[in-house]
TrEMBL record, chain A:
Function of the protein: Component of ribonuclease P, a protein complex that generates mature tRNA molecules by cleaving their 5'-ends. Also a component of RNase MRP, which cleaves pre-rRNA sequences.
Subcellular location: Nucleus
Stretches with biased composition (Polar residues): 155-164
Lineage of the organism: Eukaryota, Fungi, Dikarya, Ascomycota, Pezizomycotina
Stated name of the protein: Ribonuclease P/MRP protein subunit POP5
GO-annotated molecular function: ribonuclease P activity; ribonuclease P RNA binding
Automatic annotation (TrEMBL), chain B:
Regions of compositional bias (Basic and acidic residues) in chain numbering: 34-43, 709-734
Record PANTHER family: RIBONUCLEASES P/MRP PROTEIN SUBUNIT POP1, RIBONUCLEASES P_MRP PROTEIN SUBUNIT POP1
All copies of domain POPLD, residue ranges: 585-690
Name listed for the protein in its UniProt record: Pop1 N-terminal domain-containing protein
UniProt feature, compositional bias: Polar residues: 44-54, 179-192
Domain Pop1 N-terminal: 64-288
Taxonomy of the source species: Eukaryota, Fungi, Dikarya, Ascomycota, Pezizomycotina
Organism field: Friedmanniomyces simplex
InterPro entries found in the cross-reference section: Pop1, POP1_C, Pop1_N, POPLD_dom
Main location: nucleus
GO terms classed as biological process: tRNA 5'-leader removal
Region (Disordered): 1-54, 112-134, 171-203, 696-746, 815-842
Biased composition (Pro residues): 1-11
């Protein structure tokens, strides 16, 4: 069947600069928030789908000019954005998802009303929204376990949230570790089969 | 982006939907559901804001973990919801051929595997299902029911009164006991307890059979017609002939209700099977000495090589069937119909002297299409009277039914339905000692050779592989005992396949075959009478162990069946290059009353290739005949009486359809341009006007009624005052008597026609054949494009002397003439067009030039300026009786009839058998080639 083909980019927004964050670490002394948690902060509430769209469009215009902007204009859409976890799913036509990816990668600051340094990481490119969502679930489970492991290792008592997350159980614990600094299960030899745009 | 999803409001709608945003503002009552909004809602994921997730703007682990957990839940929920939004109701997933319109939502009517789901959905919806039993009758219905009740009570009373005074007829053997009990209340005048012996009815020969008396419930519907044994099956699933216009006094399925043109083609050629109930085909039995029977057949002008020659040896022994045209005995020997003839196997005892053998009576079955039955019947009676010693003729029309099965799965399906019964048990032999006149001879181990052969045919995909016109006769068990049928075991290994091939090659049935029991009236009736009731069958099935079939009981009926394959070799007649795989078909003859159970077992047989055999109607039968390039009787034989009647029927139907359309939207046959500036269709536009072809154009003031009709039709446009009269005329038009058949119009046999066409000067036609009105049946293939329709006119090429230019133009269209150098092998795209250019935009200029030159040399297409005009009426040679796009050949083909006189002698001109075909009511002629079939 002939149909319009899309790519769905699963995106994480990271805030490496702790100083400009709108959230401060927990006030209790000695309660050191682990680095994994600090690294994946929630986004400010002003960040929403519209802002992300603007960010991408501006980025593409800057990098690829009117050509790029025109190419992606028809298909670009933010399908999902959760400020609490800084996760987004962005849809773009299959032919031009690289333009969007490039614009995301070159972003260093969120635009005006937020105006905060950030790093945007494309963690998954998928042909269907379902696979992107599955990956998001997997990653959320992974980060939960990582946070719990970090909390346990620093002997922080009172974090009894493990029982509250029944959803993240099926995964093995082995993939908590990073692989060469990249938190991805993929084997290095893997070929991305939908990389045909 | 989307706001957090609120909890769903209390559900007021019928359907329990997934929580959607649209429910926050309940839609107005009569507003149709916005499906787009619904899917959008289903796909929106709920999200959490940071403020909510992280209280007091503090970043801590527990909030972090909770926010992730929330995300996971939201995503999973979203996935489930969007999947559900795409979901369809259970009854929407029913396969196409099982879909129904009324009560489609009723769980009891959806396939079993969907029933569980459907039940749940119905419960969710709170959909009420009403059964007929519990439905409150409407006011009108109530009145009818009350009448029925009253009538029933009255009937019961009358019956009781009648019974009390009835003379009781008892069998001699039965002990007289009860009859007096009922008469005790009456005065005992009728004390006739002395048994009256019921006389065995004498078989009436030479008398037309009457249809079996239908059940009282259905009797009023069968006054002027009869139902096929499978009428109820077909009436539910097919369009039948309208009650007011039965075909050949039968109610016949015309076409299945479901779309079936392509499925039928596929089932018959690639995978599956198609079956027809052919019980309407008439059967006649002749009985007498072999010499007399041969004499009768000779009177019907069956070929001498079959009657006495070696070619017909096996047929005369009763091991093959013969299909052939039968003709009238008296000159001019009009063709009657194609008939199938089957001899009963003669008992073989070597001791009998030749004189005894000569004296022995033999039987012969003649099967003929019902449209020609009466003509043949009269002819047979006449022949039987003059035969010496006498031949008795018996009409077996409602005693023997038949079906036909074709397709690669035909053999398999029949094997699943026909379970040979073992050798006759003792009890049956006992009860029929008086009845069976046939001797079961031969060594006992050879007795079951037919049954064994039949069972070993598993894996045969084309009955044409068997010896031509092979015949199998055996007894089968009641198929209802093995219902529902199960897929049979098919040969898988090479060795098994090889065994099948060996069997087909050796065909042991020829060596030993006992007389088919179907020829025995007593045995036929015994089988019909012994058929147990469905209730009894169900009880026996209930007693059987799970998964097993009920035990065979000696009281079971042994249904005598006769199976034969029919496949005429395509190459003998020299048909015009029709090289389709010649797939044979099985014809099954069985007692009339046994057809229905056999039919159900056949229809529900699960084929090994999936699905079940399809059933076909008359249209499907004609379609497959047409695709096989075989003429269909009576439609394709206008030279016969039955064919002429069919033509009149069709003409009237088409005319009715034509008249029904408004004047502006129908073809004006009077004014239509038919080439070379001439206007007006040749003859009537809605029929194959053979009268016109034979008689030539009418004189201007002529007495041709059809022409007058048309003239009036044309005039009335100018004179609106006449429209009243005209419309009256329109109404009465269909009721007028059909045009009489031209007296000399006749159909020439293919062989005679071929010989005559090959050398018209030397071959002598029989003196009685009126050459000017002898027709030949031909198969047409269009050489360029176009599809011939029924009623299309066939022209010969214009003569070289009178229209040399036109002739040259037409010959230039011949594909072999224009570009002999170009062999376009495997190029796609439109047929007979230039090869496609490569896709690149900038071609080298030489290619463009070459293309241009080719295009200039290419013959003109229809509608372009240089396309040749259609020849005039002086070159009209015949009409297309069946024409359509042939799915097998992938182009338009047709069957038609030509006047021999007009096409003979054109052979030596070297143009093969080229003709021009023009559809009725159009002006574009197409080049075609014809071949005698």
């Amino acid at each position: 069947m002939v149909r319009i083909k899309h790519r769905y980019l699963l995106v994480n927004i990271l805030y490496p600069d702790t100083k400009s964050s709108h959230l401060r670490p927990a006030s209790k002394p000695g309660d050191d928030v682990p680095y994994t948690v600090q690294f994946r902060r929630p986004s400010p509430d002003q960040v929403n789908g519209g802002l992300l769209m603007r960010l991408i469009r501006d980025g593409v215009v800057e990098l690829f000019g009117d050509y790029g902007s025109g190419k992606i204009a028809g298909s670009l859409q933010v399908k999902y954005f959760s400020p609490a976890t800084s996760t987004a799913t962005i849809r773009v036509s299959r032919e031009h998802y690289r333009l969007v990816w490039a614009a995301l990668t070159f972003t260093t600051r969120l635009p005006r009303p937020v105006d905060q340094p950030c790093v945007i990481q494309v963690v998954r490119v998928s042909g269907t929204i379902r696979k992107a969502e599955e990956e998001a679930i997997r990653r959320a489970g992974l980060s939960i376990r990582r946070a719990e492991a970090a909390a346990k290792s620093s002997n922080v008592s009172g974090v009894a949230t493990a029982s509250a997350t029944p959803l993240a159980v099926a995964e093995g614990d082995d993939d908590v570790d990073m692989f060469n600094g990249i938190e991805d299960r993929d084997e290095p030899g893997d070929v991305d089969d939908d990389d045909d745009g | 982006m989307a706001p957090p999803c609120p909890p769903p409001p209390p559900n007021t709608k019928k359907r329990k939907d997934a929580p959607t945003n649209s429910q926050v503002h309940p839609p107005k009552r009569h507003k149709p559901t916005d499906h787009r909004q619904k899917t959008r809602d289903a796909r929106t994921l709920s999200t959490q804001t940071s403020n909510k997730a992280f209280q007091n703007g503090e970043l801590d682990i527990s909030s972090f973990v909770k926010s992730r957990a929330y995300e996971i839940r939201a995503l999973e929920d979203g996935m489930a919801r969007s999947k559900k939004a795409l979901n369809r109701r259970a009854f929407q997933q029913v396969p196409k051929e099982l879909r129904r319109r009324t009560a489609s939502h009723n769980v009891k009517r959806v396939p079993k595997r969907l029933r569980e789901r459907g039940k749940r959905e119905m419960a969710d919806d709170n959909t009420p299902t009403v059964t007929a039993r519990r439905r409150k009758p409407t006011a009108h219905m109530r009145l009818r029911l009350e009448t029925v009740k009253k009538l029933r009570a009255m009937g019961a009373k009358r019956k009781a009164a009648k019974d009390s005074v009835k003379v009781t007829v008892t069998d001699l053997n039965a002990p007289p006991s009860e009859p007096t009990v009922s008469t005790t209340t009456q005065k005992p005048t009728k004390s006739i307890t002395a048994p009256i012996k019921a006389r065995t009815p004498k078989v009436k020969r030479s008398i037309l059979a009457t249809p079996p008396l239908p059940k009282a419930k259905f009797r009023k519907r069968q006054v002027h017609k009869s139902w096929l044994p499978t009428h109820l099956f077909h009436a539910k699933r097919a369009r039948m002939t309208p009650p007011s216009a039965p075909l050949w006094r039968f109610s016949i399925p015309v076409t299945p209700t479901a779309k079936s043109y392509r499925p039928t083609h596929r089932a018959s050629h690639e995978r599956g099977a198609v079956a027809w109930d052919m019980s309407f085909v008439s059967t006649v039995q002749l009985e007498g000495r072999e010499g007399s029977l041969v004499g009768v057949l000779r009177g019907l002008r069956i070929g001498e090589e079959n009657l006495v020659g070696r070619k017909g040896d096996k047929w005369r022994e009763g091991r093959r069937v013969l299909e052939g045209f039968v003709y009238e005995r008296e000159p001019p020997h009009h063709a009657i119909a194609p008939a199938t003839m089957i001899w009963c196997v003669a008992p073989r005892d070597e001791s009998a002297s030749p004189q005894e053998k000569e004296k022995r009576k033999r039987k012969l079955l003649l099967r003929v299409h019902p449209s020609a039955f009466f003509q043949l019947w009269e002819e047979l009676l006449r022949l039987a009277k003059v035969a010496k010693p006498a031949v008795s003729v018996e009409d077996l029309r409602f005693e023997i039914g038949s079906m036909e099965v074709t397709g690669p799965g035909a053999t398999e399906a029949l094997l699943g339905a026909l379970w040979p019964s073992g050798p006759a048990p003792e009890s049956l032999a006992d009860s029929d000692t008086t009845a069976t006149a046939i001797e079961i001879d031969g060594p006992p181990e050879k007795e079951t050779v037919v049954e064994e052969t039949w069972s070993a045919l598993a894996g045969l995909t084309n009955p044409a592989m068997l010896p031509q016109n092979a015949l199998l006769a055996f007894n089968v068990q009641d198929p209802r005992l093995h219902h529902p049928p199960r897929t049979i075991k098919l040969p898988r290994t090479d060795a098994e396949q090889h065994r099948l091939l060996e069997l087909v090659a050796s065909w042991p049935v020829d060596a030993a075959q006992k007389a088919p029991e179907l020829f025995e009236r007593k045995l036929r009736q015994a089988a019909s009478a012994r058929m147990p009731s469905q209730k009894a069958i169900n009880r026996r099935k209930g007693l059987a162990a799970p998964g097993l079939y009920p035990e065979v009981s000696p009281k079971d009926p042994q249904i005598p069946v006769l199976l034969y394959t029919t496949s005429s070799p395509a190459n003998t007649t020299g048909a015009s290059g029709k090289s389709s795989p010649n797939s044979g078909s099985w014809t099954l003859l069985a007692p009339w009353k046994c057809i229905q159970p056999l039919w159900y077992s056949l229809m529900y047989y699960p084929l090994s290739t999936g699905q079940q055999p399809r059933f076909g109607g008359l249209d499907q039968y004609r379609q497959l005949r047409f695709e096989a390039g075989k003429p269909w009787f009576p439609g394709d034989f206008p030279g016969t009486k039955a064919g002429w009647e069919w033509e009149c029927l069709e003409r009237r139907r088409r005319e009715g359809e034509w008249r029904k359309r408004p004047r502006g939207k129908r073809v004006n046959y009077e004014r239509v341009e038919v080439g070379e500036g001439r206007r007006g269709e040749v003859g009537v536009g809605w029929g194959c006007d053979w009268e016109r072809l034979l008689g030539g154009p009418p004189v201007v003031d002529g007495g041709d009624e059809g022409a007058m009709e048309v003239e009036k039709d044309g005039e009335s446009r100018d004179k609106p005052a006449e429209t009243e009269k005209e419309s009256e005329k329109d109404k009465e038009a269909p009721e007028q008597a059909p045009p009489p058949k031209p007296p000399h119009l006749t159909q020439l046999p293919a062989r005679q026609a071929l010989a005559f066409l090959a050398s018209p000067s030397t071959t002598k036609l029989p003196p009685h054949v009126h050459l000017a009105s002898a027709l030949i049946t031909v198969h047409l293939t269009l050489l360029t494009r176009g599809v011939p329709q029924p009623c299309a006119r066939i022209f010969r090429l214009p003569s070289a002397t009178r229209h040399p230019d036109l002739r040259r133009q037409w010959l230039a269209l011949l594909p072999s003439n224009n570009h002999p150098s170009q062999k376009r092998s495997g190029h796609k795209g439109p047929k007979h067009a230039l090869p496609r250019l490569p896709k690149q935009g900038d071609l080298p200029s030489h290619l463009v030039h070459q293309r241009l030159a080719q295009a200039l040399l290419e013959p003109a297409r229809a509608g372009e300026e240089g396309y040749p005009e259609c020849p005039g009426e002086e070159d009209l040679v015949g009409f297309v009786t069946t024409g359509n796009y042939d799915l097998g050949a992938g182009q338009g083909t047709g069957l038609g009839s030509l006047l021999v006189e007009r096409v003979m002698g054109r052979e030596e001109e070297g143009m093969g058998r080229v003709c021009i075909v023009r559809n009725s009511g159009t002006g574009v002629g197409r080049l075609g080639r014809w071949g005698v079939i």
